[in-house]
Amino acid sequence: MIHAGNAITVQMLQDGIAEFRFDLLGESVNKFNKATIDDFQAAIAAVQSHPEIQGLVVTSAKSTFIVGADITEFGANFAQGEAVIQEWLVNIHQIFNSFEDLNIPKVVAINGMALGGGFEMCLVCDYRVMAKSAQVGLPEIKLGIFPGFGGTVRLSRVIGIDNAVEWMAMAVPKKPDAALKDGAVDAVVADDQVVAAAIDLVKQAIAGRLDWKAKRQEKLEPVKLNQIEQMMAFTTAKAAVLSKANPAQYPAPKLMLDSLQAGVTLTRDEAVKVEAQGFAKAAVTPQAEALIGLFINDQVVKKAAKKHEKGAHPVNQAAVLGAGIMGGGIAYQTASKGTPIIMKDIGNAQLALGMSEANKLLTKQVERGKLTAAKMGETLTRIRPSLSYDEFKDVDIVIEAVTENPKVKEAVLADTESKVRDNTILASNTSTISITRLAKALKRPENFVGMHFFNPVHMMPLVEVIRGEHTSEEAVATTVVLAQKMGKTPIVVNDCPGFLVNRVLFPYFGAFDLLLKDGADFQQIDKVMEKFGWPMGPAYLMDVVGIDTGVHGAEVMAEGFPDRMKPDFKGSIETLYEAKRLGQKNDVGFYKYELDKKGKKAKTVDATTYELIAPVVTGEKREFDPQEIIDRMMLALCNETVRCLEDKIVATPHEADMAMIMGIGFPAFRGGPCRYIDQTGVAEYVALCNTYAHLGKAYEAPQLLRDMAENNKKFYG
Q1: Which pLDDT tens digit goes with each residue over 287-313?
Q2: How sure is the predictor about 599, in pLDDT bands with cuts at 50, 70 and 90?
Q3: Residues 558, 434: contact at Cβ < 8 Å?
Q4: Which of 452, 552, 654, 694 is catalytic?
Q5: Residues in CB range of 55: below 8 A, 6 or more apart
Q6: Is 452 a catalytic residue?
C-alpha cells in the first residue's frame, strides 16, 4: 500500500499502474470535505515519492464516484468574506493543479454520480471513462454559486465555450451519451467494465499509443478561439442565459459568464485565480446564502420524512374518492409511480372526466418522449374507475377529493369508513377544513389524516400531511411514505384551519385586499410583487386559484382566526365574486382571459374590473411606493409563518420555508419567509412591523420575533 488515508488509498495494480481510490471513511458517499481535501494532498505527495508509478487509474470504492463538495461544511467559509473564500480556493486549486501536473497519464473510471467537485476531479484527469449508469455535471448554479474547483476553466477547454456554458448554466446532470457527444468523456462502457477500460487506456498511454501529454496541455493553455470567435460565443451565451436568469435575482450565472470570459485568454494557473475571484463574489451574495439554505432545508425535510418509514404499513392498493381534475390528477400521480388505484365517483360522466385528465397527462409524457405508448398503457391499467365500493375491501388507503364542503366530506368519509377494513387509512385532500373537525363524523378517527395536494397535482412537489387531534402515528407514517412513493415531498403539520400553507397564504391575500381598499392599483401590485420574485402577482394568482375558491377559503380562515383574518370591510375579491367573476374558471376575474396562438389563456386588462371595485375603494387612488407594497404584503405572510411556528403547526423553520417555496412559489432566491426575516434583520423586521401595526393584527410582530430581536437571535445560525 502506497497510501492509506481517511478518504483515499493508493496501491499498485500491475505494470507500473497504481489505483488512486476514493473511499471516505464513515460516509455512504464520497464527497470533498476538509478530510478529503487534506487526504488528497497527502495522496498526491505519496504518488510523487514513488517513481515506479507510471500511470494512475482513479476509482471510487462506493456505488457512486464523488457527489461533490460538502456544502454543509464549506458553506461556513462563505460567511467569512471574499478574501477568505479566495484564499481557501487558491489552496484547493494548488492541490488540483498538482494532481493534474503529475507527469504520468491519469484515467478516471466514473461510476454512479460525479457532480460538482466530483466532476471537477474527473476533469483534472487526462482521460475519462464513464459507466452506462453514471451521470456527470456541474450543478452549482442551483446553489447561487458556480464551479470553483477549476470547473469553468477546464470544462471550457475540454468541450468548448458554448457547451461549457450550457452545462453550467442549465446545471442538469448529463447521461453518458450526451457527455460523450460533447466530448466531456472519452469512452462509455458497461458498469462492470469501467475500471478495466480505464486501466486499458492507462496502458495505451504508457505505451505511447495515446498522446496524453498533448491532451493535458490543452487544459493548461488559453482556449483556442480567436477574439472574434470568443466575442460571438459569449454574446450568444449571455443573451441566452441572462434572458432566463435575472441578474438582480440570480447573480451567479452572470458572474460565472464574466469569470469564464475573463479566463479563456489566460493560462490555467491565471484563469483559476479569476475563477476564485468570481466564485467569491457569488458566494457572499444573499441569494447564495438563501439557495444553499434551501439545499440544506431539503435535506432536513427528507430526514424528517425518512423517520416515518418504520412506522408505516405497506400501500399495495389505493383509492381516490372524486374523479374531478384533482381526483384524476391524484390517480395519475399514484398510478404513474407504480401503485394501483381505484377512482370512485357517483356518475359515469365524472369518471370519464377523471380518466380523461389522467389520459391527457400521460399523452403529454408520450409526446415529449418521456414515456412510451406501452408504458402509458401500463399506467392506465393501474387506474380502475368505479361507481361502487365493491373492491374497497382490499384498499390500504383512501384519498378523499370531493367538493370542499364540510358536510359533503363528512358524509362521504363516514360512508367510506363503513365499507373498508378496520385498519384502512382515510386521508382527506381538504385544503382548509380542520381534520379534527372532519374526524368527528368517523368511528375510527385514529385512521384519519389530512393529505393536501396542490394543484396541478402532477407539477406541484409539496404534500401537506396533517395530523388531527386523534390521528395515529401509523396513519401519518403511511401517508408520508405513500407521498414519497408518489414522487412528492411530504411535510407533516399539525391541524388548524388552513393548516400551514393556506393559513399563511390568506393573510397575504388579505393584505392585497387592504391595499386595494386604500387606493392601490392591482396591476401595480402584481408588477411589484413579480419583480420582487413571485411567479405571479396576487391578483393574477387569485384568478388562477379561482375567486370562488378564494372567497370560500377566506370564510374558513376568518372563522378560525377572526382577530387577523376577518376583515371589517367588504373587499374587492368578494365584490368580483358577487359579480360572478371567478378568474380563469370563466375567463374573467381581475383580468380577462383569451386563448393565445398557443392555445393558452393570456390575461388582458379589463376596465370593468375598476368599475366594479370602485365602491369598495375608500382611499385615494394613487401610485404606491413599491417598497410599501412589498412591506405590507410580506409582513402579513411572514408574520403568519412565524405564528405557525409559535403554535407548533410546523416543527422547524426549515420545513416552514420549504413548504412556502414548494407550495405557493415563494421566491427561491429569497429562501423562504424565515430566511427573509433573517436577511432583513430580525430587529429591523420587528421595527417594520411596528410601523405598520396600525393596519391590524396581521401586521403586528409575533412574540417569538420580539423575543428573538431582544436576544439577538436568528432562525438560522
Answers
A1: 999 999 999 999 999 999 999 999 999
A2: confident
A3: no
A4: 452
A5: 16, 17, 18, 104, 105, 106, 107, 202, 203, 205, 206
A6: yes
